[in-house]
Predict the structure.
Amino acid sequence: MTDNLETRLIARGIKPTAVRLLVFREIKGLNQTFSLHSLEARLQTVDKSTLFRTILLFHRHHLIHSIDDGSGAIKYSLCSDECNCEIEDLHPHFYCEKCKKTSCLTQTQIPKIQLPKNYVLSSINFVLKGYCNNCK
Ligand SMILES: [Zn+2]
Ligand SMILES: [Zn+2]
């Protein structure tokens, strides 16, 4: 991953405006998954609807991927530079039932599931639950 935030936004077809760079820098610094709500709390200088639109834009351009960990709030995490959010790029996620943190298990591939005839796969939500290293 390059460290230049501007270059990374441009590589994803996102125009690097000041507010987008600010949001991206915050996300990158987090180094973990986040919800829109948790980001709002950290970026109080950014207008909420602007922040929401920025996250949607980042998501649409595959700068971040979304995770439904069953906690009720959609979480997001940065995509690797090679990720296009295709089925092959997806990875499992781990939800800690104690600290409520969700992590990307990027070293692991989602097993191929044999689908019945004429079924078409559009997304996979593979979430493991338990206790993380800090909570076990
Ligand atoms: Zn934990
Ligand atoms: Zn992930």
